[in-house]
Amino acid sequence: MTITIIVALWRHRLNLFGYRKPADVRIIAVGPISCLTDEQCVDIFYQINCKNQTDHSYLSLAQKVHELASNYGATTRYICVFERDLQETIAKIRFSLDIEGTVPEHVELLLHSRDLKTIAKRNGLITARSCTISSQSIVEKWKEKLIWQIGTFPMFVKAILNDDNRCTRLHYIANSFESLQEWVKAQSNCITELHIEECLQNGNEFIAVCSKLGLIGTIVTTYSKRPVLYNVHKQIPYALEYLPVDKTRDHYPGIESFVLQTTKSVFIKSSYSLLFIRGFYKGHSDIYFMGASLEPPSKTHASLIYLARNSRSWEVLLLENLNFPQNHNGDICSNDSCTYYAVINFPTTEGVLLHQTSIPKHNSQQRVIWRASEGDVMYDATHIDENVLQANIPMDRLCFIDRYHICPRHRQLNQRPYGSNSLVRSSTTTD
After folding, report:
1. Tens-digit pLDDT profile for residues 108-135
2. Half-sphere exposure (CA, 13 Å, Cβ side) for 140?
3. Parallel, antiparallel, or unpaired for β 275-283 and 351-352?
4. Model-level pTM?
5. Which of 219, 245, 210, 244 is nearest to 325 (CA)?
6. Are residues 405 and 288 in the same domain?
7. Are residues 240 and 350 in the same domain?
8. Rounded distance, CA 228 to CA 205, Å?
9. Would you call 72 helix, strand, or coil by DSSP?
10. Are 216 and 336 members of one domain?
11. How many domains does the chain have?
């Protein structure tokens, strides 16, 4: 039977380069023309324009997707979406037409991390300690509750503000109770609720890429024993490395069984083709569940998957596991098992980005890419993708360590992590 894959786009730029489309598969894309970067694998494209990049009115897109899904009812239908904002809208269409895939109930669960962690804890998974504090309570009485339910500082603080009938969320890292008090008082009494969570340490944060058949690959934070969000807020450089299944078993034993336990307990009723599970690794039997999503947590993770798959995006990986899970080989990495894939992020520091010619060129296998245009004013980073520069390193790992003597003590902000011979070229780009 013919398989019809309907891809809904709004702001995400679709790149299906390298996808080997079977003869019985038809791909139909719906969305703005600017979102289509590779037309070779797309059989039919329906253009739906949005007013601007911040337009959240998906009515016209949803109507067209619903119409197409109804018209191709005689075929095996799938509706794919690669944007978090569209997940709930498309899930409702799947549910109404009885199409296989993630339904609204499961999308709602993924969008609310607190409920997801509660279910995970109920099913035997370890989660970070947390508590919720109402704005009506007395600030001085918080300290006893925080120490009893969470423990020691630092702590992650998520505040919900109600300012002029607008609900916004703020994130803060409190290093002491006094700093938490000062920060709360500085919010002009607009805070309606505080959710405070333990800041995990002495481990490695990871993203496990998995399908219905198990683990596909793992992206691990290295040279840092804190979560990525802590490093970003504190302006500390960190590295993300991709590990295939065999190397995950060797260097981080227990992650594969953790993924299996998570998918069979928390997501047992969910129907997904690709899932990104976030966790914190301390040991074989000491792995924390931090959340999950249907798309990569950031562009940095997506670019690392793209590197490890020989310039084939995670969207292609999703389509491959959508209708041909039997082709799953447990590894999205290239055939070269000696290749080491990593991205080093240097969080933004305040200042002005200097001209690229101020950095000399040297022979190396490392590529450094500026993520801001020359002359841009750089502010403190609040997200993983807000960095001064990224260094992509596709090379032999052992050779890399021997040559550059990577060591955690070299990862300080006031020191260059590599020598002057570590840069191939620099470029100013708004990528």
Report:
1. 888 887 888 888 999 899 999 988 887 6
2. 0
3. unpaired
4. 0.81
5. 210
6. yes
7. yes
8. 7
9. coil
10. yes
11. 3
